[in-house]
Amino acid sequence: xxxxxxxxxxxxxxxxxxxxxxxxxxxxxxxxxxxxxxxxxxxxxxxxxxxxxxxxxxxxxxxxxxxxxxxxxxxxxxxxxxxxxxxxxxxxxxxxxxxxxxxxxxxxxxxxxxxxxxxxxxxxxxxxxxxxxxxxxxxxxxxxxxxxxxxxxxxxxxxxxxxxxxxxxxxxxxxxxxxxxxxxxxxxxxxxxxxxxxxxxx
Length: 202
Known about the structure:
- The chain is of the alpha/beta class.
- It has one domain: Alpha-Beta Complex (Phosphoribosyl-aminoimidazole Synthetase, Chain A, domain 2), CATH 3.90.650.10.
- The chain is 37% helix and 16% strand.
- It contains eight helices and seven strands.
- Helix 1 packs across helix 2.
- The longest helix has 13 residues, at 87-99.
- The termini are far apart.
């Protein structure tokens, strides 16, 4: 006998729901939190994360996406997804596939939590990073992206930020609004007509 359980955790107005499937060519991509929580968490488990880096990671994990999402209502946002267990590229792939586009990610523009780079150099990646790489093996064109950066972009995140696709003409104003609220808002890439790969990392 099949049994299903459900939990109602909130109420949403139908005209204020953002989907991950309507990104459009010429859109800009914004990211509202830096990457690194997977590395920090793994380092904590192995007693290898410095206390100040752990504290920084916890501060970012405690920051809800509510404030960032509230700022979106005044803009023509086309697609949004949160960045969690599949890493930045895993969730970017979901947007690209659902929207029928290619997302171009400029890896040098992706922000990292302070102190994360040495953890990456020490190889403190969670096992989910390998799983994410296998999942996206034929979905990403890496160009000349260094291997360490590839791993960081595939690093599973805990309580990651929002990846937002919106018109280039509105991106600067949204960045300003988010920054005025003390939030991160990095422009990390752009949306293009679909190519041979869903993700183009440069």
